[in-house]
Design goal:
The protein has 203 residues and is mostly beta strands. Helices cover 0% and strands 42% of the residues.
Length: 203
């Protein structure tokens, strides 16, 4: 409050006067996100994290909207602020490891602020998708240990390493180096084109 003094030149009077500071709605000043990482190959609806508005006014309530960034991949619950993966989206760390969304936080009075959050697409180990063989021909009467060709695994993950094993086909005739993938003729095997011109191995 303030003290006001009034004087007519002879008499003096003092009054204590209260001044009320009225509240006005202030807009959100910031926003936070609980988590900003999601694994590649995650299912539709997987929640990345939850946005929360920051506001100078105690008890403020908010609504949330994605207004920029990778809005084709992600959606937000307007009430809870939960960001999740949209249906039909296949996240691939190797193709795109970093996304972003710009969130608009609006308070009950219609005031808003925008904030951009990075979303990290985390790598997960993916299994081999294929295998190649450098050569698939060997001469009849070849000596034991003659290399037919070398198998190489194909994997979506860069830098993946492999081991190799023959699990089917003419495993009695051929062997594979578990580390290099080289397929060679086993000892004691006599290949005869006229008797059997086509063999196979399952790796």
């Amino acid at each position: 409050d303030v003290i006001v003094q009034v004087s007519d030149g002879v008499n003096i009077d003092q009054q204590h006067l209260a001044i009320n500071v009225s509240n006005v709605n202030e807009g959100p000043s910031d926003a936070t996100l609980t988590n900003n990482s999601i694994n590649e190959n995650s299912a539709a609806g997987t929640i990345i994290g939850t946005v929360a508005g920051v506001d100078p006014d105690a008890g403020a309530s908010f609504t949330y909207q994605i207004v920029g960034g990778d809005s084709a991949k992600y959606q937000i619950d307007a009430t809870t602020g939960a960001i999740s993966l949209k249906a039909g989206v296949a996240l691939d760390h190797e193709a795109d490891a970093l996304d972003s969304v710009t969130i608009r936080v609006t308070d009950q009075g219609g005031l808003s602020t925008d904030k951009t959050f990075a979303i990290n697409v985390s790598n997960v180990n993916e299994g081999p998708s294929d295998a190649t063989l450098t050569s698939n021909n060997i001469l009849e009467n070849s000596a034991a240990g003659t290399v037919v060709g070398t198998v190489a695994g194909v994997d979506p993950d860069a830098g993946a390493s492999f081991t190799y094993q023959i699990v089917g086909g003419d495993a009695a005739k051929y062997q594979i180096d578990a580390t290099t993938g080289a397929i060679s003729l086993k000892a004691g095997v006599a290949l005869d084109h006229e008797a059997d011109a086509l063999d196979s191995v399952t790796i």
